[in-house]
Amino acid sequence: MSIPVFKPFMHDGDRYLTATDAFCVATYGHQVITTPNMKLIPQPFNNESDIIQARTDVFAIPRQEAYADDSSMMYAWFRPTFASDFTPISPGNLFGQLKTDIVGHLKRLYKKANTAVGWAHAMRAVYERFQQAMAWHDIVIIVAEYQRWFLDIWAVIDYYEIYQASHAIRRHYAQDVAITTKVHAAGVPVWLIRDARLVNANMNIVKVVSFTPPDDLVIGMYHDPVKLFAQPFDIINRGPNNRKRHEAARQPYSNFEKLPVSTPQVEQMVTRESLVGRARVDKGKAKMSAKPAPYNATAPRQNKAVSGRDKWSDIDHPYMPPMNSFFKIALEDANKDIIRIKHPRDKMDDGYSLPDPGLFVNVLSPQSLVKYLANWLACRPTWIERVYDERPRPLPRAQNWRDFLISQHAQEPSNTRTSGKTSKSKAATALLFQKEVPVLRALWAGPTNVHWRGKDIAISTLDNPPADLARQIVYEICEQSFRYELLDLDEHLGRDARKDKEARKERMELLRSIFPSKSLKVWNRDLPQENDGLNAPSFDAALPYFESFRKVLSAWEHFPESLKQPFDATGREHNIWKGMKECCLFYVQSYFDNTGRPPVVPHLLYSVA
């Protein structure tokens, strides 16, 4: 089959171009791509032999060149630079804020989008974070998130202002002339893809062009100074480069984590990604069937794993104890829409009382694992007592813990400057761990052992620790984190149940009754020999602890009407199962709504084959 050679010409003078005419035309294999209203044709990707990955997409993307005369819109595509747009807390520091004038320009985008009240509220929540000092790569990520929200909103506003219809036009690429005509009439950029044999010989052509490569898909601001990488969005799809993959990537953002990921063809890519410290995680999103399975808090995890650190998923790793199955389902089913997150003035502290458990499995190298484990075990006694007695505010964020535990505090730093991801703790992190830094400095100055529950452990063995030891360490962190986060959320939402000294005492007794030890200080007790409490493997054993859990939750706002009745041991197993599951979902949802992140949930001490 011969491919036509196109030359610019106009059969009918300068008449208005129809949807099937070509302001631009280019050929791709046996196909011809035309556009009646754009000055370029993006390079197509439809080659099964290529593996591509998508991180995010919006249902319509306003193009920058369409707003060349509106200077206020330029910040929708603004790319911050470290040298000119960032004010560090000290010269050369990677921790600081965007410059005031930049924040002002970004705020004007919020004002322009404020007609779409629901979404603009979420955009406002992202904007509030610009007021905080943070690491440069976090600022890059937040700017990208802010721009994504704005472009989503602006596309909708443009659509209703330009072309109101009974259905939304979501595609820019089309293979149907009728759809192309409607999209063109709406003023939406459109490219028509046709077999060369179907192109009308009388088509008007303004110019023949080469494809525009996607140079703006991977841009410099996502590669931080000093090897700190900013990755604004999770990978939502990866696989052969075909139409199916493109359609899969163009789904509502809230459903991205439920898309199947094709792994057999991407082993090399997975290997490359592991170099940035991503652990293998279980992203299985299987929904519960209409008929519930028998209760089993120790249900084994699926073995399917993909690269990436998803805090909403169970991590499939030898050092990570598996999740309680009820809480695992709750994390899968929770509504993760950013609109649900409360305004910053109504939120609670979203930091971590203890290190993010995933930190110990999401490591770059054995040398990093040694530092994480040795530093944590060394500072564990002082920090746990401090976090319980003093409840420091603000709590360290996940990145603060990472910076602190990866550092080898060998000597007194001469200043607060940092040089990289694994260098000395950043200034803000050092302030959070003032009491712990001297402990770690002493550790790396001499001792060769760390202490763990009555045992001395050689630091040199921690690059490849026994799986049982690592799993116990992480289990303790998960268990304590769950208790502290439950306490914090109850203080935030259960204020009415703590009206006086006596009420506060009763409240604490109720909270303690959720746990078999009747204690919220688990570190001074032996680890349990079997799963119990909320992790108990039978209905009868778990029921009293879930009833106490239900009573605690009943004082919180938006408590479900369906949970108002106590769990009755004489009731149907199906109803009890459903109530336990709903308690866990309500807890996870409440924690996300009030912090913007998933909680650390109960894990099982021992795997069940």
General description of the model:
The chain is an alpha+beta fold and 609 residues long. Among the domains are: 1-49 and 168-219, no CATH class; 338-595, no CATH class. The protein has helices at residues 82-85, 100-113, 117-128, 136-162, 177-185, 243-249, 267-273, 325-333, 366-389, 398-406, 427-432, 437-445, 467-493, 501-512, 539-553, 573-595; strands at residues 22-28, 31-35, 51-54, 86-88, 95-98, 134-135, 173-174, 191-195, 205-208, 237-240, 280-281, 306-307, 449-452, 455-458. It has a five-stranded mixed beta sheet with strand order 7-8-2-1-9. It has a three-stranded antiparallel beta sheet with strand order 4-5-6. It has a two-stranded antiparallel ribbon with strand order 3-10. Helix 3 runs antiparallel to helix 4, helix 8 crosses helix 16 and helix 15 packs across helix 16. The longest helix has 27 residues, at 136-162. It is elongated, with a radius of gyration of 28 Å. Residues 164-171, 251-308 and 420-425 have low confidence and may be disordered.
Strand share of the residues?
A: 5-15%
Q: Averaging pLDDT over every residue, what do you get? A: 76
User: Unreliable segments (pLDDT under 50, ≥5 consecutive)?
Assistant: 164-171, 251-308, 420-425
Q: What's the total number of strands?
A: 14
Class by SSE composition: alpha+beta
The largest pleated sheet is described as: 5 strands, mixed
Write down the Rg: 28 Å
Distance between the termini: 59 Å
Determine the fraction of residues in helical runs and give it as a percent range: 25-40%
Features:
five-stranded mixed β-sheet; alpha+beta; single chain; 16 helices; 14 strands; three-stranded antiparallel β-sheet; 609 residues
